[in-house]
Amino acid sequence: MNSEDLFERAQAVIPGGVNSPVRSFGSVGGTPVFMERGSGSKMYSADGDEYIDFCCSWGPLVLGHAHPRVVDAICRSAEKGTSFGANTEAEVELAELICNQIPYAEMVRLMSSGTEAVMTALRLARGYTGRSKIIKFDGCYHGHSDCLLVSAGSGLLTSGNPTSAGVTRAITDDVLVAPYNNLAAVEQLVSEHGDSIAAIIVEPIAGNMGLVMPDEGFLEGLRTICDKNSSLLLFDEVITGFRLGVTTYGTICGVTPDLTTLGKIIGGGMPIGAVTGKTEIMKSLAPLGNVYQAGTLSGNPVAVAAGLATLRELIETDPYPAMEKLALNISCEINRHAENVGAEMHCATKGSMFTTFFTKNQITNLDEAKTCDTKAHSAFFHKMLENGVYLPPSQFEVCFVSAAHNEQDIKMLINAKYS
Predict the structure, then answer these.
(1) Which of 10, 78, 135, 141 is most enclosed, with most CB atoms within 10 A?
(2) Which are the catalytic amino acids?
């Protein structure tokens, strides 16, 4: 069956025909593509088409699809058992490896998703500090737990407004929202609510309004504010953890958070999440402390095996410089093309991540991201798709280069924009 047939079937039994909303192609139009398999830098659809994949399962496939070492680790682990609900040595090995690679990671709690990791980190921050309020930033996505499905209020410096039905105002009253890259807004919130602020949570590089870098001094400023207010600083590195190097972006940029959430890459494409941080804080988690968190599939042996294989491969081969070179080539070519033809677009890049924004203006926050021409992006997306290049089906997501991509793959993307 082709994608249209499968989507029709899916809509009868799955809400919207998809198990994650962005897969619906709702923001770009058309019928979502159903995939059958992946290999290296490529995916192959139910329609018999081949695509160069720059979505990479939204980030975790840093080694590409079906990397032999990862697949072998998954198979060997599955042969021993897919789940025990009991402890395994591999869990300890993954936690040790994470602590070895992140200088400020002293203890790790594994779980099954990034959403679960962030939810746990916030509960931990509240339990440890005895405070209730959280500051987050408009445009930063931290999973779909109730208290984080918020946007800024009418004056920005207010409690967050629920952005989903089923989320009550009572739940979001303890979440304060500020614009990304705006330290003055954070300082104002702290001046008004400081005694009740448990933590500030931020994507150190924003990845859910497109790729948006922190302004110089922004992360350092957050660290200073938290120290002065005895609040915790939480870095959500579900996307950036192990994406720019075999460590976190906090390590790379020299700003030390109190807690870090991880996901994506540490599972090698399998479902996983983790919270890591200082021993003093982490010991507040049950069974040592009074902050409860549990999960039958936490530290699932198959996911842990995939994560260990991925991280060990990254440590041994260090593909980051090559990936960064390819992503920079994409960005330079797109920006050169935009300048030559006078197009209202530019490509932002960092390491192996990039986003093509359909505006000439540099993006530093959500309000600026919203000025992008989403219709132009949709046309760009479908042109790429027609030419065998698969990008995330949203203007406000990040594209990824993997270790499996090569110069020919990059040429296909670059040539596709001229067709």
Answers:
(1) 135
(2) 141, 236, 264
